[in-house]
Amino acid sequence: MLQTLLNSCPLIVTFNLEYCSVLKKIELLNLQKIKSVSMRMCRYQRVKIEAPTLEHLFLSGFEDEYPMLDIIDAPNLVSLEYLGNQIPKTFVEANFQWSCHPTRFILGSNTTRIKRFLDCLLYMKNSSHSTSCGNKDLHSMQLKEVKAYKFDHENQRWHHVQLESGNLLSLRKLERFCFILDW
C-alpha cells in the first residue's frame, strides 16, 4: 500500500512515518524531489532508501531492537539524526560504506553506544581506512576531522567536548551528541 502511494507521488518533498507497525518493509525509491525523511520505526521493520536528493534523515529505533537499514543511497545527505539505544549495525560495522557521508550526525543513545560509535569514527579518522563510494575517489571519502558537541539538558544548549571517553561519561540514561564530520 505504501509503495503504491509513493509511486503515485514521485514529487514528495517531505516524508514522515510514525510507528506504523503493519509495514514490515519500507522502501523509499525513485522519489525525485525528496529532501527530508523522518521515521519512527517499529520492531522488525526493514528500511531501504535510495534518494539522490535527500538532505535530512531522522530515524528513531525501537528501544531493544536494532533498526534494519538495508541500504542508504543518498549522496546529498547533509544531516543524519538517530535516536535509540541500539545503533544500527550499518552505522558502526559498515563504517559508513554507503553512498552518503553526512556532515552532521546527531546521535541520541546511551553512553556505551555513543562511545562505541565515537570509537568507530576515530578509527576511520586515524587510520588509512577509506570508505567506498561508487565512482568517487576513495581518498576523498576519508574521514578527515570529527568534532563533538554534547547536549546540556539542564541549559538546553550544545557544548563542544574533547574527543576523550571521560567526557562522555554521565549519569543520564540518554545522551545526545552532535558529530560534525569532515570527509
Number of domains: 1
How many distinct beta strands? Answer: 11
Beta-strand proportion? 25-35%
Average pLDDT number = 78
Which H/E pattern describes the elements?
Answer: HEEEEEEEHEHEEE
Report the structural category.
alpha/beta
Helix percent band = 10-25%
**Tally of helical segments:** 3
Reading side by side through the largest sheet, how are the strands ordered? 1-3-5-7-8-11-9-10
Q: Provide the gyration radius in Å.
A: 17 Å
| Overall 3D form | globular
Q: What low-confidence regions span 5 or more consecutive residues with pLDDT below 50?
A: 129-140
User: Strand count, sense and closure of the main sheet?
Assistant: 8 strands, mixed
Distance between the termini: 38 Å
Organism: Solanum tuberosum
Domain F-box/LRR-repeat protein 15/At3g58940/PEG3-like LRR: 2-92
Pfam family, one: LRR_At5g56370
Protein name: F-box/LRR-repeat protein 15/At3g58940/PEG3-like LRR domain-containing protein
Present the secondary structure layout.
Blueprint: H1 2-8, E1 14-18, E2 25-29, E3 36-40, E4 46-50, E5 56-60, E6 68-73, E7 79-83, H2 89-92, E8 104-109, H3 111-126, E9 145-152, E10 157-161, E11 175-182
Parallel strand pairs: 1-3, 2-4, 3-5, 4-6, 5-7, 7-8
Antiparallel strand pairs: 8-11, 9-10, 9-11
